[in-house]
Amino acid sequence: ELPGFHGDPKTIHLEVVVDSTEREEIPPFGNIVDYLAFGGIYRDVYLYELESTFLSDAAIRYEVSSIEGETGTVCVTPVVEIDSLKQGTPICLKLQLAGQEHLCEAVTLGGVQTIQFPTFACEEMLLWHTDAPHLYDCHIVLEEAGCVLDEADIRLGFRKIDFSADGMFLNDRPFKIFGLNRHQSFPYAGYAMPKRAQEQDALILKRELGVNTVRTSHYPQSPYFLDQCDELGLLVLEEIPGWQYVSQKEEWRSLVVRDTKGMIKRDINHPSIFAWGVRINESRDDHALYEETNRAAKELDPTRPTTGSRCIERSELLEDFYSMNDFMHGSSQNNGNILRKQTRCTGLEEKVPYLVTECVGHMFPTKRFDQEQRLIEHALMHGRIQSMAAQYPEYMGAIAWCAFDYYTHFDFGSGDRICYHGVMDMFRIPKFAAAVYKSQKKPKDEYVLEPLTYWTRGERNGGNVFPIHVFTNCPVIEIKMGGVSKGRMERQFFNTDPNMQFLDYPPFLLQMTNGEWGDCWNEAEFIGYMDEKPVISRHFAANPIYTELLVEADSSELIAGEFDAVRMVVKAVDQAGNILPYLSEAVSVETEGDVEIIGPCCISLTGGCTGFWVRTRPDAGKGVARVTVLGSEGRTKRIALQLI
Ligand code: GAL
Questions:
Q1: Which of the residues 143, 144, 282, 596 is marked catalytic?
Q2: Helix, strand, coil distribution of the chain in percent, nearest 5
Q3: Phi, psi angle pair for 64, to nearest 5°
Q4: What sign has the CA pseudo-torsion 25, 27, 31, 36?
Q5: Is 61 in contact with 78 (CB distance < 8 Å)?
Q6: pLDDT value of position 1
Q7: Is 282 a catalytic residue?
């Protein structure tokens, strides 16, 4: 029964039939695709009860006309769409923004009509920036003869983005893109994860990994994820669904244009989105199709630039900036190159705005539980590329492949339908490569110190632990071996990795000796200093013993009455708190109360840890629920969850 329904109560039965078949006439399909697109209804669905005239869309276009420090003058042109069954009825649109109210009067035409407000200026507006993502609420009311027919709340942020051959500018200041690609897939659930999990991914990217940009490869992603990017100050490059293949069939091609329009219409008001990807990722040139997607994008959103990620060189530039997936580093033909020069990729004589939208990925698939030398090289590849992208203004920056391991078709991946390309695994547990990103955070936000070592005698070829890369944002570090200090060292060219000098905090490169194969093995401690004071340290035991089973939950609350889910990470740690990287025992998970585990309840730790999500039951009421994780030898952890 619909709330607010007057007259005879009626029961409306809605039946939705979902076909999850991958159909060749629908992008991204038609050929093979390196990701699983899943199927079914995997996001929240709402049923709206509407008047016969209602707001069907609103795009709040704007231009920042002048900037002073953190504020600016913004010229706003709202474009509102209404849908009406009536013709000739006078209506009034009221829009409130930053303490101002603007009116626009019109007469319904019957059907969908667009109403553009006259442009107005808002002064001294706090601008949106990745460092300070100021947001404003915009409220729109649709009235007929003084009666409210419909209302909408839109969250806005105002920022100025410019591009040139010398890079990108955010609010007139140079800005270097330092980012990762994201697939929105999750273990066992695929794409079907609720708000909290989507938001958590944005938090991980921004707060844990410290990147400033994410590319929603290769499709528009959850609105909850985008909302959180707006709030946190995480720039987004969003793109249409597709992967390398372009069909010549009219039906398929018209869906590409439809997808372009759909993406822009849905997401136009997100300040975090700085560009539209209007090409099928890594597809060949197709002048007619891409002229059309660019045209459609500009018609709906004249203010945002377009781009499209290529893997071919000398592709026709129809967009505002050229994006390249540059997998040169790690290739056998690379001659030591890290990134290609942009003119080689564009084939153009003059430089243009140019962004690296992928790198590393399949050139060096790395599992979290791989041998440490592989984990280190994986990290160093990310570090070298990000450093080179930071060094030259001809790169707007680099968005590496990728944030999290993801599910894929059998044509890709490691035989288990997983691509191990993430700097984190599918449970969002970090690999060494995550340290490259984390360590670039400002020390005022968090001190980071990540020595890339398991500190064991026999892990590396040759039985030595050195050289060790220490990724840290501390200017001075000290290493103690067997309790004896080897001295403090301040970050300088000679003691850091020469290939990462353009990172904000190049990693220390420790070249020492820990004795020969057969010598006694000792503990170690790495200490980071700031202003002469020790602020962070990592201790490695000489003889690691399985000491504790840790369970860390992202939140202790879940929302009853809706599908909510919280991640829990389970770690087997030694006496120094380090994950035991090759421990793979089974743990079982039990729940009490209105929650259940997504996936199996008996799981094995892989490389000393794993994760799972706990979800609310569909009929969950408020109260307390408990999750118990049982490991070997009586190691047990109990986590209480409040269902609110
Ligand atoms: C790229 C592609 C991505 C992913 C990546 C793996 O060519 O655009 O979707 O497959 O390779 O490195």
A1: 282
A2: 15, 40, 45
A3: -85, 110
A4: negative
A5: yes
A6: 46
A7: yes
Q: Which atom of ligand 1 is nearest to the CA of 360?
A: 12
- CA pair distance 628, 603, nearest whole angstrom: 13
CA neighbor of 141 nearest in space, from 50, 54, 268: 54
Contact 614, 566 (CB under 8 A): yes
Q: In whole angstroms, what is the distance from residue 492 CA to residue 478 CA?
A: 14
- Please list every protein residue whose CB sits less than 6 Å from any atom of ligand 1: 34, 217-218, 281-282, 311, 325, 358, 361-362, 401, 421
**Best residue among 401, 414, 420 to mutate for probing ligand 1, ranked by most atoms within 8 Å of CB:** 401
Instruction: Given the residues 358, 450, 525, 596, select the one marked as catalytic.
Output: 358
Kindly report, residue by residue over 26-65, the tens digit of the pLDDT.
999 999 999 999 988 999 988 888 999 999 999 999 999 9
358 catalytic residue (yes or no): yes
CB 343 within 8 A of CB 384: no
Give CA angle at 264 (262, 268), nearest 5°: 135
* H/E run at residue 68: strand 53-68
Do 127 and 159 form a contact (C-beta atoms < 8 A)?
yes
Identify each DSSP E strand in 69-170 by its residue range.
71-97, 100-116, 120-126, 136-144, 147-156, 161-164, 167-170
pTM, rounded to two decimals: 0.96
